[in-house]
Design brief:
By secondary structure, the protein is an all-alpha fold. About 80% of the residues lie in helices and about 0% in strands. The protein contains 19 helices and no strands. Helix 6 runs antiparallel to helix 11. The C terminus is likely disordered.
Length: about 475
């Protein structure tokens, strides 16, 4: 890659952050719209789960493939294709005539989304080659996460209240089109000198594992946990995973390089991402339904209620990056885990008339913004920069797997406890789900302590790699 001016590098960073913004915005906007979707499309709780998980499941399955493809055929090209598919999928979602079509178009969105954040991060990694400059770029990247989450609830509430749930997908269209044009004008093409080969068998096994397990968890309450369908789903998932691991170990260029899991910081960051995004996905899912269906708030009022959490994230996300740069990931992980756990204690006794100040305190304590920076800086330490797309995709996959499982498990727990009128029973049925998120917080805190010791860091040195790289948010 030819030498770029500082101004050009910052412009490339801004273009890449545009993709992160619309993907992050999509998370909170869609959750705010769930109650309106349920009424308009006559959806059950499991149907709402599929609106969320159709996206995260497909995304998780394709991230590694998209990252390796970008390293092979060109990062800018794949980034632009991803923007086009995500934009097209968003437009199609806004026109969906039924729940089934909406779920299908969400999957199309995810195909494009799989080509955005990890590929954008690999572009940034190869644009900002000086470690200190790269760290500042990652700090900006992390701040955009907070900004998108802060804008999502309020913007989603305004759009749903004023124009209906279909309007939440319109936001992505102009941003996506602008990013495609700007990428063509200002982002240079780059490829890996030695990209990984394709692994279609491994790709299919990953998809089968995730899809079958997620389907079983979501549909379990309706079909019965002991039904042949659900037991068969779990059996297929277990068989696919049991086949995937030895198959990948035998390949010279595996889809998932299991060798990197010998690094305790990498493995710990992967588990932390699963717990953190599982907790976040479940939290947003429950909270949107509770505020609108149980408390009777409008979409706009629900967005305003959750604004304290989003604003806290917007402030803490860049602060966390600075702490990681100065003191390492240990303190942010401890604070994040403790905040999530403490936030769930009052919610574990949630009622229809829980005081607003109690909800506000829980939202502020949730503290999710502290998690991203330490994961970003430690998840794939020791991976070569030439394979930045694959490295970023592995870390991003763990986040999407966590989100899928969080919505699936927590939604299934609530669905199993519902009886009679959903609005009357939902608050009580959600109590076990809040405790599950509490456990996620405790796990983050514990893993933060265990994986940041000197002994744990020493294991990263044993993973052969010529140059460190950061992961995608």
């Amino acid at each position: 890659m030819t030498e770029l001016t500082p101004r050009r590098r910052m412009l490339i960073l801004a273009i890449c952050c545009m993709s992160l913004f619309i993907v992050g915005l999509d998370i909170t906007i869609v959750n705010i719209a769930l109650p309106s979707l349920r009424v308009d499309l006559h959806s059950s709780v499991s149907g709402l789960q599929w609106v969320i998980d159709a996206y995260s499941l497909v995304l998780a399955s394709l991230l590694v493939l998209s990252g390796s493809t970008a390293d092979r055929v060109g990062r800018r090209r794949v980034f632009q294709i991803g923007l086009a598919l995500f934009t097209l999928g968003s437009l199609a979602c806004s026109l969906a005539p039924s729940l089934g079509w909406l779920i299908a178009f969400r999957a199309l969105q995810a195909v494009g989304g799989s080509m955005l954040n990890p590929v954008a991060m690999s572009i940034i990694t190869n644009t900002f080659t000086e470690p200190r400059e790269r760290a500042r770029a990652i700090g900006v990247w992390g701040g955009v996460v907070g900004l998108s989450m802060a804008a999502g609830p309020l913007l989603g509430g305004v759009l749903v209240a004023g124009l209906g749930w279909r309007s939440i997908f319109w936001v992505n269209v102009p941003v996506g089109v602008a990013a495609i044009v700007l990428a063509a004008l200002f982002v240079p093409e780059s490829r890996a000198a030695e990209p990984r080969g394709l692994d279609p068998v491994g790709q299919v096994l990953v998809l089968v594992t995730l899809a079958s397990v997620t389907f079983g968890i979501i549909e379990g309450p309706n079909a019965g946990w002991a039904s042949p369908l659900i037991l068969g789903c779990f059996a297929v998932g277990a068989a696919a995973l049991a086949t995937l691991i030895p198959y990948e170990n035998r390949r010279a260029q595996p889809l998932l390089d299991l060798n990197v899991f010998r690094s305790v910081p990498f493995s710990g960051a992967t588990l932390i991402a699963v717990c953190a995004f599982g907790g976040l996905g479940g939290f947003l899912f429950l909270n949107a339904i509770y505020l609108q269906d149980v408390r009777g708030l409008s979409a706009l009022q629900a967005g305003l209620y959750t604004l304290p959490m989003a604003l806290t994230t917007a402030v803490i996300a860049p602060l966390s990056g600075r702490i990681v740069g100065a003191r390492g990931p240990r303190l942010p992980l401890i604070l994040a885990g403790a905040g999530i756990a403490l936030a769930m204690i009052p919610l574990s006794r949630l009622a229809a008339d829980t005081p607003v100040w109690v909800l506000a305190v829980s939202y502020v304590l949730f503290g999710f913004g502290m998690v991203n920076a330490p994961i970003t800086n430690t998840a794939v330490s020791g991976m070569p920069r030439a394979q930045a797309g694959v490295a970023a995709a592995i870390a991003s996959t763990s986040r999407q797997v966590g989100s899928s499982l969080g919505v699936a498990v927590i939604g299934a727990v609530v669905a199993s406890g519902l009886g009679g009128d959903t609005a009357l029973r939902f608050a009580v049925a959600s109590h076990p789900a809040w405790w599950i998120i509490f456990v996620c917080g405790v796990a983050i805190l514990t893993l933060g302590l265990v994986t940041t010791t000197a002994r744990a860091r020493a294991t990263a040195a044993r993973v052969e790699a010529p140059e460190p790289v950061t992961a995608a948010i």
